[in-house]
From TrEMBL:
It comes from Haloarchaeobius iranensis. This is Ribonuclease J. Its cofactor is Zn(2+). Substrate binds at residues 385-389. The keyword Protein transport does not apply. Pfam families: Lactamase_B, RNase_J_b_CASP. Signal peptide: none annotated. The gene is rnj. Zn(2+) 1 binds at residues 81, 83, 151, 173. Keywords: Cytoplasm, Exonuclease, Hydrolase, Metal-binding, Nuclease, RNA-binding, Zinc. Its EC number is 3.1.-.-. Transmembrane segments: none annotated. Binds 2 Zn(2+) ions per subunit. It is not clear if Zn(2+) or Mg(2+) is physiologically important.
Length: 447
């Protein structure tokens, strides 16, 4: 059986992920993501109304015209998890394929919301929910399996396409976490089995976000304990404390809510995306929050909540807000500019339970946000966080578990791949033979 891999997007950047695997006449598409930074550099752009081709030209979504070169039918579109760089282009591209979107429950709900918000295209693909550990047939001779993995969003999976020539493991995005706070630990046992059963692993496509980092990415339990340490140290502070993190990081938001109560403060989630992700997680039963937890998304209800906090005394509350990257229109940045009813005083605390995504736009915006907060006297607790992506020892462990015949580094730029190329070369892979460093818009012929 002929096996080809089309590296469509996310092979020159972190963002707009999309990969297609053709096995005989059947094609499976993994991820259809958005490169948000290529959208944000344009002022006030509304992608909901934009055409795919314009977004492709901007470098915002994958250029999927290369799909015409693959001879076969798309049988499934499979987003691995709910981050926008993996699902953000579904509303712009999926309608071109006569295939269902297959995803884990939380991911599928976020995909539904993307489709509902879309203003230009009608996405009417079937939506199929599939849990980790489950499988579905692809054509007559292949099978799709979801393996549970751990990442900075709940319900992440790594899809595996079992073909007569061996398994194709699509390894984006994950870290190896045995104590993930919410959800099950990564299923390393299953990865080891897949590496050894039948024809073994024909190809492994790997998340190289942190491939240049030595050592091991710690568990979410470590971030949780760092966060508890910071918050317990502020237990006696009788002024304002504000926290921010990735809205989609449900485990972290849960920890913030829990520790707020532990130090006698009422947590309140503020900002559109805070309300969206936590609301969705609660609705599908993936997370449980206290009954009286306030979640406010709309500008007016957020301002009302801030007024209540100021009236009842900000020492009684922990607002958890958007704006961890210093996004100009996010809640924390607005607070820094004095645009909300919440007043920061000298000595008030701001906890960033996030890392700055190392990219000039983010770095600049975050710098400005911190300066604005600092000018009002706020004390900053930065980087109370661990990454959701494997570092080098995790990559080593995965190669050891899967023993793939071919590897394809993904989810980075050429510079970002270098750490992985080094590591794979030391494990006996060769650039001319079975280690495929590639870019967007290429097709690799494996069999
Ligand atoms: Zn991700």
């Amino acid at each position: 059986m002929e096996i080809e891999i089309a590296t469509i997007g996310g092979y020159e950047e972190v963002g707009r992920q999309m990969t297609a695997v053709r096995a005989g006449d059947d094609i499976v598409v993994f991820d259809m993501g958005l490169n948000l930074s290529n959208v944000l550099i344009h002022d006030d752009i509304r992608t909901e109304q934009m055409h795919s081709l314009d977004l492709i030209d901007m470098g915002a979504i994958p250029d999927d015209r290369i799909m015409n070169d693959l001879e076969g039918d798309v049988q499934a579109i499979v987003p691995t998890h709910g981050h926008l760089d993996h699902i953000g282009a579904i509303s712009k591209l999926a309608h071109r394929y006569d295939a269902p979107i297959v995803a884990a429950p939380f991911t599928l709900d976020l995909v539904k919301e993307e489709i509902q918000d879309e203003g230009k295209f009608q996405v009417q693909n079937d939506l199929i929910e599939m849990d980790a550990g489950e499988t579905m047939p692809i054509g007559d001779r292949c099978e799709l399996e979801f393996v549970n993995v751990t990442h900075s969003i709940i319900n992440a999976i790594n899809p595996v396409l079992h073909t007569p020539e061996g398994a194709i493991v699509y390894g984006l995005d994950k870290r190896i976490d045995h104590t993930p706070v919410i959800g099950d630990p990564i299923d390393m046992k299953r990865f080891r089995e897949i590496g050894r059963e039948g024809q073994g692993v024909l190809c492994y496509i790997e998340d190289c976000t942190n491939a240049n980092k030595k050592g091991r990415t710690p568990s979410e339990a470590v971030a949780r304990s760092q966060l508890r340490d910071v918050m317990r140290s502020l237990e006696d502070y009788d002024g304002g404390i504000v926290a921010t993190t990735f809205s989609s990081h449900i485990a972290r938001v849960t920890s913030l809510v829990e520790f707020a109560e532990e130090i006698g403060r009422q947590p309140v989630l503020l900002g559109r995306s805070m309300e969206k992700y936590s609301g969705t997680a609660e609705r599908i039963g993936a997370a449980t929050f206290p009954n009286d937890l306030g979640m406010y998304g709309h500008r007016k209800s957020v301002d009302r909540a801030f007024k209540r906090i100021m009236n009842e005394g900000k020492e009684n509350f922990l607002p958890v807000v958007t704006g961890h990257q210093g996004e100009p229109r996010a809640m924390l940045t607005r607070m820094g500019r004095g645009e909300t009813p919440y007043e920061l005083d000298d000595g008030d605390k701001v906890i960033f339970s996030a890392r700055v995504i190392p990219e000039p736009t983010n770095e600049g915006q975050r710098y400005q946000s911190e300066r604005l907060l600092g000018m009002q006297g706020a004390r900053i607790y930065d980087d109370v966080h661990v990454s959701g992506h494997l570092s080098q020892e995790g990559h080593y462990t995965m190669l050891d578990a899967l023993q793939p015949q071919h590897v394809v580094p993904a989810h980075q730029s050429m510079k970002g791949f270098s750490g992985y190329v080094d590591l794979a070369a030391k494990q006996g892979y060769n650039l001319d033979r079975d280690l495929h460093v590639t870019s967007n818009g290429n097709v690799i012929q494996l069999v």
